[in-house]
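Subject: Complement C3b/C4b receptor 1 like structure
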Amino acid sequence: VKCPDPQIQNGRRVSGDRHFYSYKENITFECDPGYTMKGHSVSQCQTDDTWDPPLPVCEPATCVSPEVENGRTNGVQTAYRPRDIIVFECDPGYTLSGSPETQCKDDGRWDPPVPVCEKMLQCPSPPAIAHGKPSVQALV
């Protein structure tokens, strides 16, 4: 039994580099940067000269559009490609905690991590003072 040398588009073998493989011999694959694997990374040569499980497929990586509670992004897409950048802003009364922008990475994650919009603390107006007026000083 000899299985043919398996090839996958947008990926490569990380184990084995021969023209034929013997029964029960395993081969391992990985996808090129910017692609994610659908299926199994390891396949085994079978008695009928096929590979099982079937060879994986490397598909273009995407990042899912992040949800930001009490805020929004400048993008309208449901998915983004690697190296796409989106910018965040918070609704009035909320402040951004984290980076205001993030980039889609080759592995389908956002970096830096998606920020959160936190409610701003609001103090009540100062009480009225007879025969006086308040002055505001910022503490840093």
